[in-house]
Amino acid sequence: MSTFKAPKGTYDLIPPESAKYLAVREAISAPLRNSGYGYIETPGFENVELFARGVGESTDIVTKEMYAFETKGGDRLALRPEGTASVLRAALEANLHKAGNLPVKLWYSGSYYRYERPQKGRYRHFSQVGAEAIGAEDPALDAELIILADQAYRSLGLRNFRILLNSLGDKECRPVYRAALQEFLRGLDLDEETLRRAEINPLRVLDDKRDDVQKQLTGAPLLRDYLCDACKAYHEEVRDLITAAGVIFEDDPKLVRGLDYYTRTTFEFVHDGLGSQSAVGGGGRYDGLSEMIGGPALPSVGWALGVDRTVLALEAEGVELEIPASTSVFAVPLGEEARRVLFGVVTELRKLGVPADFSYGAKGLKGAMKNANRSGARYTVVAGERDLAEGVVQLKDMESGEQAAVGVGEIVAELRSRLG
Length: 420
Fold this sequence. Notes:
Layout: H1 17-33, E1 38-39, E2 45-47, H2 48-54, H3 60-65, E3 68-70, E4 76-79, H4 84-93, E5 104-113, E6 125-134, H5 139-155, E7 161-167, H6 174-186, H7 192-200, H8 203-206, H9 211-216, H10 229-244, E8 250-251, E9 263-271, E10 279-285, H11 289-292, E11 300-306, H12 307-317, E12 329-333, H13 336-351, E13 356-358, H14 365-375, E14 379-383, H15 385-389, E15 392-397, E16 403-407, H16 411-419
Helix pairs in contact: 1-5, 1-12, 5-10
């Protein structure tokens, strides 16, 4: 028994449960791959300042949750707490925006890290699939991403999720709202840290989950009442486009999300079967982030969907994913000559794309057949000295129990035919 355990707030993905996570990642990314999004992968750590500038110095992510450290060379780095800032940094560094084909459409899948109080659905190491469309200001792009996320969830069989939608305005109208909200917040009975946050970014206070804070926010000014004509028109077009696509959503005037870089369109996917950790994903438009991290003006929009929470949502709805067996054929050799022959059969099947496994170790027939059953294989190929002397192997259908002798030279073709 190992004395080491996974760090607090983390978990290991092991078979067969891990197959479910792979299926979720595949389902979320499939609509993106069909819509012009290319795969990008960034380092697991970045310069601390990338997140301080982009995510926001007043956010809990930067002030409380980020895993920051100093290297032996004196560099200040942080494990990535979210994906957008890293992806945008990589796109700028590679000059993807100068290739002349905007927007740059990228998708990613990876692990992220936040020092949080561990609970079901909230981990210190978690997995996300995300998408970013960089370099274009177009309501159709915002709508496209919302529609693709909705499509991904429905392809998994999820039905009891809700899409919350709001607009956060832009640099023209948000300052007016910001001033009105700050004036309102100064009149509340808030703790010193929350009041300090209200002065840096008052919208973050609206995202405070504490009941005593939320009760005091009743009657707070709403951003929708302060939107300029351009932001109102933009938001209405997003709403019209996703409605025309048959996507059902709810307007949520208090939705602000937790990151400083969002502008205009913001949205969240929530599932009521997950308790307090109801958000399974979300995103929005971040038109000023590129400039915040030293790049040119590149209006952009994106989202990230949590793989961990999506799996929990599937479990809450009782949805069982159809995951194909990892093994279709299992070979059971009885004797040294059979080991050589059947190992060659397994190798040939694998070359042809047929999932096949082999009974390793000196097991008897009974033990080997138990392994075959556990593997989930549809067919088992058994061979002993007498079979090989007759030039055959025994092919057993594990569903029907039927068994027949097949020539050694024909077994690969026979299995391919049966498996389609």
